[in-house]
Amino acid sequence: MFDEILNWANRYDEGLAHVHSRQDQWLAGHERVRDHLKAIADHLNQNARYRQGFFVDTLHAFNEGMRGTNTRMPSLEFRSGPMPMPITFRNSIGEKMTYEEEGFSISFTPTITGEILVLLQPHTSDLEQDPPELVTLGVIREPGQLTNPVIEQLIARGMEIAFYGSFTGMGEQPHLIDQDDMALKRNPIGFKRHDTTEKI
């Protein structure tokens, strides 16, 4: 029985070694992932018909209490720029208000276990009362296995889900995504109705 207890005690050492191994894989490879994400962003910025702008950011885990960063946990974010919405309000003194939809982002974020969590932050706008929840696109168990084809599949999948959650895609019929991936909002935008005598 002592041997079995010792085996479980030794699993902690093995688990810690695996965490360090995954962290080392990400530290060694995150710049390659970043460069590939930048290549995707550059391709979109040069070739997309509508160019809201695509960007790649590198972020680090931050502790607000001590205002310190953890350099062993860099995070990458592939994001799009905002898009103006075709909704404009004017009042009697000529003031004008327009709305825009914030871009989506797909983050590659290391966890405390050393795995990489790939999350989609869908489009948001001031018209929504509750911001949409994050969508998990994948968990990369071994960061060293995050190859360029896998990156491209994750970005394509994330953009597909983001499109159907945007004002440009809500009216389209989703045919490739699982309806359970994201609740597609089709609620009224919630402005008060204003009675008018003007002819329409």
Describe this structure in words.
- This protein has 200 residues and is of the alpha+beta class.
- It has one domain (2-173).
- It has two helices and eight strands; from the N terminus they run H-E-E-E-E-E-E-E-E-H.
- The strands form two sheets. The chain has a five-stranded antiparallel beta sheet, with helices on one face. Strands 3-4-7 form a three-stranded antiparallel beta sheet, with no helix packed on it.
- Residues 181-185 have low confidence and may be disordered.
Work out the helix count.
2
Q: Any low-confidence stretches, pLDDT <50, length ≥5? A: 181-185
Class based on secondary structure composition and strand pairing:
alpha+beta
Number of strands: 8
Shape: elongated
Strand order of the largest sheet: 1-2-5-6-8
Mean pLDDT: 86
- How many domains? The number is 1
Largest sheet: 5 strands, antiparallel
Strand fraction? 25-35%
Rg, alpha carbons: 22 Å
**SSE order:** HEEEEEEEEH
**Residues in helix, %:** 25-40%
**Span between N and C termini?**
86 Å
